[in-house]
Design goal:
By secondary structure, the protein is mainly alpha-helical. The protein is 33% helix and 2% strand.
Length: 392
């Protein structure tokens, strides 16, 4: 009898061990859980696709790649993974840091093996909410999907160029295929484990488009009025003055000198999105980083939202070459656009009557514009878990 019960207990024990092992083997997200722990819960993903936005935000360049929680989660991992570079040192987040509105403080960013970016890293906040669908400062990417893997393919930035002995993009795809959590993340996002550049592009673009910021002082004021040209009840007198200057077009004399009106900033950076108009040319900044060369091709800019942090400190230098370190310098540039005969691509709105514009802003007007620009910065975007590194 004793041997009989011993056999039953042994059988039950063995069956229990086998059952536990079986359950562990069939868990489709085991590698994800082992790598990321509670940071990514495949059965309870963070909300990317159902984020709310103010009713007055109407622009959207999503196109045919709508945000889904599963793919955006994969995009988040890809965005922060240094394994997407040839020497495992550089991730997208190295050039686009959450604490700086997804830009960086450096004028140019370090790439792989001593390389560096040729332009300052553009802020990514609210990339989704713009009429302009092209990306990069010089608009060389037709869509965000096209943009997101170009830095990975860049010889200096992340290195999978296939040039001068460097591996090509197919080598990266094979690399990712041998990582268990990527096989599971792609299956979570797309239904199977196939890893392709097109799927990487979809996922990274969805993650970037999910990064949004609508909790600024501007938003608090805009929600209380019917239009931007009405006084915001939560604004100071100076902030409302700056808003009016931003919105009102200037009136010029025959020589391009302002004689009335505002500064006309909204002509290219229309509220409430404050993205760049699709038909702009360059803004008179034609220098390059660490070079005496002239570059007339930079006709895009990021949204003006989150130019500064909550303390009013810039989230890095401004313009494609990082030439300006303060909002005051930026306002000063537009106050008197330099006359550069070699700039054949200056936006016509900055050349009234054939002359580079001279706004002749007073000190008080300049201060008011700076005060208004600072109201465009939110706070949650800097700490929200959805856009933070999952590698913790």
């Amino acid at each position: 009898m004793k041997n009989y019960f011993t056999s039953i207990v042994l059988a039950m024990t063995l069956f229990g061990c086998q059952n536990d092992a079986s359950e562990k083997e069939v868990d489709p997200y085991l590698a994800i859980k082992e790598k990321f722990g509670v940071t990514i819960d495949p059965e309870n993903l963070l909300n990317y696709e159902k984020q709310t936005k103010p009713a007055y935000i109407t622009r959207d360049n999503t196109g045919t790649n709508p945000i889904k929680d599963e793919a955006a989660t994969l995009g988040r991992v890809l965005f922060y993974d240094v394994q997407l570079s040839v020497d495992n040192t550089v991730a997208c987040a190295n050039c686009h840091a959450q604490e700086h509105a997804f830009s960086v403080l450096a004028q140019s960013s370090k790439g792989v093996l001593g390389g560096s970016t040729q332009r300052h890293s553009m802020r990514l906040v609210n990339s989704r909410f713009g009429a302009e669908t092209k990306f990069f400062w010089n608009e060389r990417a037709a869509t965000l999907e096209d943009q997101v893997t170009k830095p990975i393919r860049d010889h200096a930035e992340m290195g999978y160029s296939g040039q001068d002995g460097r591996p090509n993009f197919d080598v990266l795809l094979d690399k990712l295929k041998n990582i268990g959590y990527y096989r599971e993340l792609f299956k979570l996002a797309f239904g199977d484990e196939e890893i392709t550049e097109a799927r990487m592009q979809q996922s990274l673009a969805q993650f970037v488009r999910s990064i949004q910021s609508f909790d600024s002082k501007y938003d608090a004021g805009r929600s209380q009025v019917n239009a931007d040209n009405q006084p915001f009840p939560n604004f100071s007198i100076k902030e409302n003055q700056g808003k009016n200057l931003f919105l009102l077009p200037p009136q010029f004399d025959a020589s391009g000198i302002r004689i009335a009106g505002g500064a006309g900033c909204g002509g290219c950076h229309a509220p409430p999105e404050f993205d760049i108009a699709p038909n702009t040319r360059n803004n008179g900044v034609i220098g390059t980083i660490n070079s005496s060369e002239v570059d007339l091709t930079n006709t895009r800019s990021p949204s003006l939202r989150n130019l500064t942090d909550n303390a009013g400190i810039p989230n890095g230098p401004m313009m494609h070459n990082g030439i300006f370190n303060s909002l005051e310098e930026v306002v000063g540039h537009y106050n008197a656009i330099p006359d550069q005969p070699n700039n054949t691509n200056l936006d016509p709105r900055l050349r009234p009557n054939g002359f580079t514009q001279k706004l002749n802003l007073s000190v008080d007007e300049k201060d008011a514009l700076v005060a208004f620009l600072k109201t465009l910065s939110g706070s949650a975007v800097y700490t929200d878990e959805r856009w933070s590194s999952p590698f913790k």
